[in-house]
Write a structure and sequence with these properties.
This protein is an alpha+beta fold. The protein is built from 10 helices and 7 strands. The protein has a 4-stranded antiparallel beta sheet, sandwiched between helices.
């Protein structure tokens, strides 16, 4: 048994699970050179750098020498174990074969996805068009509201009767609401309609500023009494603030279209 290495560190625990993360991490095209040879098998610099990045969660060129030494030792130990005669019998296990196959396929699929997106990036025109589409679909108003959440419709109806008689909404919320905003008088602050479940946002939109619901509103959380305090024009985000998100979404949609074409060709 022969082992030649540039650096070793004894006592380092094995981290076999990190191999999967290293396999799935993006890899740049670089020249590889042998770092250590274990039982006739070279562990090259690409393997070391991939494993190092998966273990330290930072670029390989930012790793300390101690971190690099530790990774080389871990890889040496892994290769020592997997080049033993017993490893051949273990590697024939059907489940292990399937796991290795899946990891290999996943790594290849990830590399293909990365390459596809690099060759089919979202253009400035596509990003602008998607942004303008989202702006058109955005609600025109934001609301400031309070609510009281109770378990039954009857309890909500009693609260509405008290409000109709002049009771203070915030005080009722503090006394009766089972929701997390109860201690704050039911204050929800400012929100856009899409931030709330639809029955709630529909009820708020139907109110006038300063008005409370005349009927209990049911959602999956229980029964609500709602006070719409104010409303204001919705201020959409700037293009630059959402550019990266839109770009990523467009590129994912392009790749999803590629997958759907593959599915259609396969089915056909």
């Amino acid at each position: 048994m022969s082992i030649s290495t540039r650096s070793r560190r004894s006592g380092t625990s094995l981290a076999l699970v990190a191999i999967t993360a290293a396999i799935l991490a993006p890899v740049s095209s670089v020249m590889a050179e042998s770092v250590v040879t274990v039982n006739g098998i070279d562990i090259d610099s690409v393997m070391v750098n991939m494993y190092l990045e998966s273990r330290t969660q930072k670029p390989a060129d930012q790793a300390t020498q101690a971190e690099r030494d530790a990774v080389v030792q871990e890889l040496t130990d892994i290769y020592l174990i997997t080049t033993q005669p017993s490893a051949k019998a273990v590697s024939e296990d059907p489940r292990l074969k399937a796991q290795i196959e899946l990891q290999s396929r996943a790594a290849i699929a990830q590399a293909i996805a990365t390459d596809f997106i690099a060759k089919n990036p979202a253009t400035d025109e596509e990003i602008l068009a998607k942004y303008e589409e989202q702006i058109k679909m955005a609600p025109t108003l934001q609301f400031k509201a309070r609510h009281i959440l109770v378990e039954t419709q009857a309890a909500a109806a009693e609260l509405i009767a008290k409000l109709d008689d002049g009771a203070d909404f915030a005080e009722l919320a503090k006394e009766s609401s089972t929701g997390p905003t109860g201690p704050n008088g039911g204050d929800l602050g400012w929100f856009s309609p899409q931030q709330m479940v639809k029955p709630f946002s529909d009820a708020v939109a139907a109110l006038a500023d300063g008005a409370h619901t005349s009927e209990p509103v049911q959602t999956q959380f229980g029964w609500h009494v709602i006070l719409r305090e104010e409303s204001r024009e919705n201020q959409p985000p700037t293009l630059e603030s959402v550019r990266d998100t839109i770009k990523q979404r467009l590129e994912q949609e392009k790749f999803q279209g590629y997958i759907e074409k593959l599915r259609a060709d396969f089915a056909g």
